[in-house]
């Protein structure tokens, strides 16, 4: 199989962890006889420094010409005081829009070998296994108007939460499709007791559920969901929610298992290549020190193999390789908890052997 | 001291727990020679059933004529399919607006005697002690437009997040004032990398901080805050945030210590009486069974004594009485974890002896 992969390392540890993921993809190509072509593009702070723009035209073109995109992370203190349109995050928001990445999928799974790393008691978190499906191109993130104005002599600021019905429909359909292949339960999270947008969300969820008789639909208010994630995370299978709620809940969920540095994500496009990236950020505090855990990026690459290239066997081989280094006790600093001697990014990557 | 207290039991266990709180307030009045007059009003589902409206005029008048308001809880499955303006929650949202309750204060504290009830490991949650200050009358909850429309032939829905600068300023000032009396740290939570409203929020926080040189100000993105609350809740002293973020984060925080049934809240008015209510909801599943934990309502009454009547000694007496029943091992069902024999709402109230 021949595939073109756009690699956007971005900022901070983004460079180091994507390097690890590319190594693994190369090993997969060798072992299984594929040809992956890697083309590099700029995004985020690095792109601002080199081109004056957080998402240069060429990067967009590169991505659109590719079969899949691998992203590292963006952001850092250096650009924190830039004006909004010149911030690294703007690059991320723009690429979501340009590539129509309407859904972000974050699988949260419990690693028995890492259970001491979780802030939750073992009996609460044990065997939790769910996916958060976050709407990624609508809602408060992109609605207009968004800005300041003077109202009755008062300085006022406004942001707008907008959804088209079709946007709600496609993300909820995606959630149901996923649930069909999993344990058959969708938890749709909204704030229908306050927001009009949530009432439409709930209505659409009910409609869509009629087409999936084998999947159970449950509605949960966002404040309750924030509690339930901690009280009883095992109740969830597929959680679907709008952009801002998803931002908050998926980050909350990502720390439950204590394996933030291990969690991949996939952003699904309605028309072009999907984008794969680790959940963690650019971690400026440890950037450039060869200390970052490459596993989240490597598992994002596995997700690419499965979801963009339908290479299930290859994806499983990567996941199995990760499992076995963990079981063998190898740890990067984030997982070591200060106790064991830890591996560098490069050493960890080397230990992950595709067979 | 003579005081008029409006009591709004509301729905479900609201009736039972406010009854407990009123008992305790009566005991305080007896013991310390005060005269508290209790006048009852309708709100929520019960009000809908009796008057056709979730917040009748008379209730608003009653509250405005009172020195403080004690609320139970609203809501229940009976009214879940009512149209939005005839839902119990609408009564709660309306009373916030009518009484200008712009700030909701939720102290989260760790009870050593209840540490087994927390989903978090003891070493993570131990000694956590912070207050969440949530803006309560602005943002997405009340902004217009909020509704459906057709745009380019597409069915579309919109909600609006609006803040006036003075609304942001007064809540942040309140947070700083609180922090001055506590450990001197304010964490202002926003989403300044995406929202215009958050950028104004951050700007105002910086401005206000100049008037409080002894208080440290830290900004935190809401997604990160959702993580930090679980990873390291002890880092927080006073957390201040806008309405919707506050709804989500304060509910998340309320389960950390495992003592949801113990947590009070105070809603502060810019012009009239404050309102005090337990954090927990109406708990329809156990309503009318004399099983609910009255402590959150009782501690809300203590907060009323302190914050509305400046009766510090009396407030402390209530809090001390609660501490000692817990230390003596008394538990309502929610805290008993199925292990010990548990007390009814009435029994627990009787055990809390004001001395
Ligand atoms: C960087 C930021 C704009 C972004 C978001 O809020 O979507 C990030 O938090 C994420 O979740 O990918
Ligand atoms: C009932 C609901 C409208 C309310 C809110 O969202 O404010 C509740 O969740 C709360 O936090 O008091």
TrEMBL record, chains A, B:
Lineage top rank: taxon: Bacteria
Gene: leuB
Cofactor note: Binds 1 Mg(2+) or Mn(2+) ion per subunit.
Binding locations of substrate: 96, 106, 134, 223
Pathway: Amino-acid biosynthesis; L-leucine biosynthesis; L-leucine from 3-methyl-2-oxobutanoate: step 3/4
Domain Isopropylmalate dehydrogenase-like: 4-352
Source species of the chain: Peribacillus deserti
Keyword Metal-binding: yes
UniProt subcellular location: Cytoplasm
Pfam families to which the protein is assigned, alphabetical: Iso_dh
GO MF term list: 3-isopropylmalate dehydrogenase activity; magnesium ion binding; NAD binding
Marked site: Important for catalysis: 141, 191
Function: Catalyzes the oxidation of 3-carboxy-2-hydroxy-4-methylpentanoate (3-isopropylmalate) to 3-carboxy-4-methyl-2-oxopentanoate. The product decarboxylates to 4-methyl-2 oxopentanoate.
Protein name: 3-isopropylmalate dehydrogenase
NCBIfam families referenced in this protein's UniProt entry, alphabetically: leuB
């Amino acid at each position: 199989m021949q595939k073109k992969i756009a690699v956007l390392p971005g900022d901070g540890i983004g460079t180091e962890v994507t390097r690890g993921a590319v190594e693994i993809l190369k090993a997969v190509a060798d072992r299984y006889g594929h040809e992956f072509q890697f083309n590099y593009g700029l995004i985020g702070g690095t792109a601002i420094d080199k081109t004056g723009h957080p998402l240069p035209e060429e990067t967009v073109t590169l991505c659109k010409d590719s079969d899949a995109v691998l992203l590292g992370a963006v952001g850092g203190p250096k650009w924190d005081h830039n004006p909004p349109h010149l911030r690294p995050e703007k690059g991320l928001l723009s690429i979501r829009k340009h590539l129509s990445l309407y859904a972000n999928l974050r699988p949260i799974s419990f690693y028995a070998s890492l259970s001491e790393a979780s802030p939750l008691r073992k009996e609460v978190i044990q065997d939790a296994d769910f996916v958060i499906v976050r709407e990624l191109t609508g809602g408060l993130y992109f609605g207009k108007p968004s800005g300041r104005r003077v109202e009755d002599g008062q300085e006022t600021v406004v942001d707008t939460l907008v959804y088209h019905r079709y946007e709600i429909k496609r993300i909820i359909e995606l959630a149901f499709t996923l649930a069909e292949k999993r344990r058959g339960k969708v938890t749709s999270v909204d704030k229908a007791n306050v927001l009009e947008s949530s009432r439409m969300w709930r209505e659409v969820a009910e409609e869509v559920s009629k087409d999936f008789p084998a999947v159970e639909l449950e509605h949960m208010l966002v404040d309750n969901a924030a509690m339930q994630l901690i009280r009883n995370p095992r109740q969830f299978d597929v959680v679907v929610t709008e952009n801002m709620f998803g931002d908050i809940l998926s980050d909350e969920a990502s720390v439950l298992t204590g394996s933030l540095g291990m969690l991949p994500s996939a952003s699904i496009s309605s028309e072009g290549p999907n984008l794969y990236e680790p959940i963690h950020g650019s971690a400026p505090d440890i950037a450039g020190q060869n200390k970052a855990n490459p596993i989240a990026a490597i598992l994002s690459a596995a997700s690419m193999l499965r979801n963009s290239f339908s290479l299930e066997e290859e994806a499983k081989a990567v996941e199995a390789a990760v499992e076995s280094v963990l079981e063998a006790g190898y740890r990067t600093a984030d997982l070591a908890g200060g106790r064991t001697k830890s591996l560098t990014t490069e050493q960890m990557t080397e230990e992950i052997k595709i067979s």
